[in-house]
Amino acid sequence: MDKASKWLVITEKPSVAGDLAKALGGFEKKGDYYESPKYDITWAVGHLLELLEPEELDPKYKRWLLQDLPILPSEFQYKPKKGQTERLNQIKSLAKKSEVVGFINACDAGREGELIFREIFDFCGQKKPIKRLWLQSMTPQSIRKEFNTARPGSEYDNLGDAARCRAESDWLIGMNATRAVTKRLKTRNTKGVWSVGRVQTPTLALIAKRELEHLKHRPVPYFTLEGRFSTATHEYSGVWYDPHFKKPTAVDEDDLQYYSEKEDRIFSQERLDEILNDFSLHKKSATASETRKESKEIAPQLFDLTLLQREANRKLGMSASRTLQAAQRLYEKHKLLTYPRTDSRYLPEDYVNSVNEILKEFSAIPTEFTSACKKILKSGLLNKERIFNNSLVSDHFAIIPTGHFPSEKLDGDDARIYNLVLKRFIAAFMPHAVWAKVERITKVGAQQFRTRVQDLQEPGWREVYGLDTEEESKLPKLNEKNPEAVTPVQSESMTPQTNATKPPARLTEAKLLSLMEHCGKSVIDEEIAEVLKDKGIGTPATRAEIIENLIAKEYVSRYGKSLRATSKGIRLVDVLSRIPVDTLSKVELTGEIEFDLRKMEKGQKKRSDFMQEMFDFTTEIVHKARSFEYDAIYKNDPPLGGCPQCQKGKVFEGFWGYKCNLAGNSKEKKEGECTYIIWKEKNQRYIDRSIVEEVLSKKIVGPFEFSNSAGTSHYEEYLTLSPIKGIIFCEADGTPKESATGHDIVVLHEEKMPETFLKMPGLVKVTENAYLCEFGVKIETPEIPETTAEAKPKKGKKKKASEDNSEEKPKKKKTKPKKNLISRMPRILCGREMSLEDYKSFILTGSTPPIADFKSKKGRPFAAALHLKENGNFEFKFVSRKALLGEDETKAPKKAEKKSTNKAKVVRKTKKQETLSGEDSSSV
């Protein structure tokens, strides 16, 4: 190699660039790259480029028109991501240097790393050769070895094709399906797009499926029986069970805990009485036997990102997004963890010495883990075959501590996540925990009672987690000499307990992440299932973003610690299955695409063939979305019951609600038509078919669970029918809690009305979505006063005699009533549920008290009071959150007071803000 020539090395992250420079040696850092006589090393920060939006390809796509679909670019073009143009230009300037003879791709060893490099290579526009490093281990020895054995970049062209096809197929499906579905489903009353995507829509389908299962559940009462027994040395309890019960094979193992029929449940009073009678007859001849087995609990695996997110959600209640942000800070800012966006739970085989060095660091400093680290170093690393495996290391290896210590004290999420990773890392190399599992069966006549106890005998790896290590069993032995012998016992009592079945629990983020990771289990096709077995849908780096995106699109909401599909989300999944383009909501789509991409990587499928298949698939989606008729997609569904309004028609399901089949399609009612409809959402709850069928047949049903918009307040309500409003809340006896004729009416006392308004009775109408009040307003109409005799009449008009009076007084302002106005306030305003008391205060006093929990469009909290304007609308008067919380704002530093010396300017700005807020709020 010519001494003047060098290679430009491009890594995916700055930290990797630093590791390469350190391992190779002889580098000097020059701004945003490292330089040596042989190499320049620079870096990306993930993807620096992205595909152009449709409107950037052609201005006509700015208007979302069905006739312009599908959008099938002849060439996919890229643009710099926001904020990355400077970084790209710096890399390009290095690439153009005359001494740079070629590129070395040192991005992550995988499909996405290949795409990141090739995007940058194309942007640089240099036809120079490429070499490829395939770095799975980051030890200095491995890095030097890879540089000596780098392969020609052309050997990875198939991988590059697969990477481009993955990105472009996602663009095709997302852009076209989102536009087509949005144009068909969006109405004037709905905001935002109906977003559809290859990964987000199947994820939504998982949440929607569980939500519907939860909503359709009806509690079924059952009994359980607890027996109390005694021996010469101790008392114990046992739960009755049916030893002949067979669990259903048709129920998924994950859902068995919610299945109603279980071996310890009794569903009839007759069966309960039979068991109690048998117990009474034979209670004097009770016997018991037991088995005691030793059970080993193997040490846990290291964390990949998904497993870390699941653990943080389960133990700490943290969302996947919060966990990722904390792990990223620990990696980038604090340098305490290895790269977190990994899907591997294994370490490279040459990392044994690195692990030992990390453990030595932790054993040298007194902490709660010092003792455990010393034990590992003394006995040697255990479980190595389950941890070190090159074949199971993907783009990155497992998340482990770097061995560095915090330069500053960690707190909050960072401390919690670091603690989780550190504990898991140490525990992984420790002995198994040993448990003593005891199962005791007590027989009374034909009835059997089971007692199960599990005691920790040897803590092993659980020592790190600080669990109790009781040596004595909580359940003493039945027979010291012969533990497995049948022993007579004394029956003390039998206690029946009444319970009711519970619905399948809504998905937590931990459970959802697990389903996304292991979704291949539900796939019938063996080839597709095998593909999904390793990867699932999404990647560890994107799953948190997918969940947050579903929430932002209002398809999903957080419900305490769980995730709940909204009515919008359920409708989308339902309509996709009916058009039908339900492929978009199935994990098989990802499996099929991944299957073809893997064939492409092996040279068994051409890029052009794959993309033509994606064009055809996208065209089919658009055609079905464009051509379906709403009435047709529900035509095969049976009626839910007779119409309670016209008493002639039948109620059928539609997209927005359940309506009478005698309803017309025009806005104006014609003779013989019926307007009856039950909307598919009420107080944040999706109204499914089962509820409608019940209420149409039984008239009073429930109670059912409802909630406020934030999911923080839950309550139960009975439902009954209203000929106008569909279904309404009622008491258990059917007494309506809402007006059955269209509105709830609240009378306001006229003497309390503000002076701005005319004295007249005030009525507040409470609708499904808003509070309304009609009133008259005093409007003062001033006339120009003429105070002197010299006042001249207007040109062309003669002065009347009555006007010729030099002592004329100014004319009084006339007051006349304006046409009645209607004040309207949404029941959900800026993310906050407005109560009737809020609105009554607003009408009676002219404003609400300051309210702290409004949210802006960006999700930021703000405090404000609502003030009633003379035109009946309202405006926000913003309030300092400190003042609202009772904090003393006068103690602010003097510097803060001097920041604005132009008081007039401050006042003008404030008034502008108020005016703007008033305009925005009145148009809500």
Automatic annotation (TrEMBL):
Root EC class: isomerase
Catalyses which reaction(s): ATP-independent breakage of single-stranded DNA, followed by passage and rejoining
EC identifiers of the protein: 5.6.2.1
Residue ranges of domain Topo IA-type catalytic in the record: 156-622
Amino acid composition bias (Basic and acidic residues), ranges on this chain: 472-483, 801-810, 887-900
Keyword DNA-binding: yes
GO molecular function: DNA binding; DNA topoisomerase type I (single strand cut, ATP-independent) activity; metal ion binding
Keyword Zinc applies: no
Keywords for the protein's UniProt record, in alphabetical order: DNA-binding, Isomerase, Magnesium, Metal-binding, Topoisomerase
Region (Disordered): 472-503, 786-821, 887-924
Polar residues composition bias: residue spans: 488-501, 915-924
Highest rank taxon of the organism: Bacteria
Toprim domain residues: 6-139
GO BP terms in the entry: DNA recombination; DNA repair; DNA topological change
Pfam families listed in its UniProt record: Topoisom_bac, Toprim, Toprim_Crpt
Basic residues composition bias: residue spans: 811-821, 901-911
Family: Belongs to the type IA topoisomerase family.
UniProt protein name: DNA topoisomerase
